[in-house]
Amino acid sequence: MGASLVKFGKDTARDVKQVARGWRWGRRPQVPRSAEPYVIPKESTVFPTKWARTPAAIAIRDLLQKGPLNAVLNFEVSPRVSGLDSLLKLDGPAIIVANHSSHLDTPLLLLSLPDAMRRKTAFAAAADYFFDTWWRAAGSAIVFNTFPIERRGGKMSSTPGDLLADGWNVVVFPEGTRSPDGWIQRFRMGAAYLAVEHDVPVIPVGIKGSFAAMPRGRGWPIPGRPAVHVRYGDPLKPAEGESARDFAPRIAAAVSALLDEESTTWYEARRRAAIGASPSQTGPEAARWRRVWESTRPMKSTDNRRRAWK
């Protein structure tokens, strides 16, 4: 009798496990996807951000950026900026293009700009990340003046062009997402397309050290106030008849030359850039740990023309 009860208990347990594995614990349909009737997908609702560029929102954002945001950034990292004289060559709105490896890049760019230009600068942000919830969307819009763009294909958003036409500068990270190891990824053509389509210059920017300070996966910078450098380059303008496909490599090369300048000297980097021999900033062909190790080496000061944060 006892043996029968033990066998019954084992059989029952096995049956319960089998049922549990096949049970629909969620609300998924029982039929396979291929057998479901086709339904036209609903259009996603775009979070409105026009309110973030009203005079009241601009005033609030100015207080937030120059107050707590600036204080926290200076407390956590040691930022330096150079090349701001390049911005004096602008006569109207521009597209600011930079490499992207950390969430620090946005506040670093914003707070390195002259105040008048900073107040008229908007950031293109991934709709599926920064605009997936209302509180994240509203927070990024009011603090950083972001607007959503789709980075997974689809038609080009009309918002960047509208902003440029209204006199706003637009920041674009052409890699589409943060670098997983600190090295530059492939540049997409969105920024080049906007520059050609709206006949505006592109300001290349090289950001060095932000990955080491706050790599992807961290929610806060590492201790010790690591050095982070932001270097602006001269404006680039599409040539007469130049296509976005031809202009995009010039933008990527300019950013690479600025990063080369941070690693060596101004003269050496300019000489290499003049003959098209700037070293690639895509990193070594090696395992991920080696690429991360290379991109987090301590930086050395290469010249005396950098200025500290205000």
What's this, in brief?
The chain is an alpha/beta fold. It has helices at residues 2-22, 55-76, 105-112, 115-118, 127-130, 134-144, 159-165, 190-198, 210-213, 244-263, 266-274, 288-295, and strands spanning 78-82, 95-98, 121-126, 146-149, 169-172, 202-208, 227-232, 307-308.
Structure characterization notes:
The chain is α/β, with parallel strands linked by helices and 310 residues long. It is built from twelve helices and eight strands. The chain has helices at 2-22, 55-76, 105-112, 115-118, 127-130, 134-144, 159-165, 190-198, 210-213, 244-263, 266-274, 288-295; strands at residues 78-82, 95-98, 121-126, 146-149, 169-172, 202-208, 227-232, 307-308. It has an eight-stranded mixed β-sheet, sandwiched between helices. The longest helix has 22 residues, at 55-76. The radius of gyration is 25 Å and the shape is globular. It starts with a helix and ends with a strand. Residues 301-306 have low confidence and may be disordered.
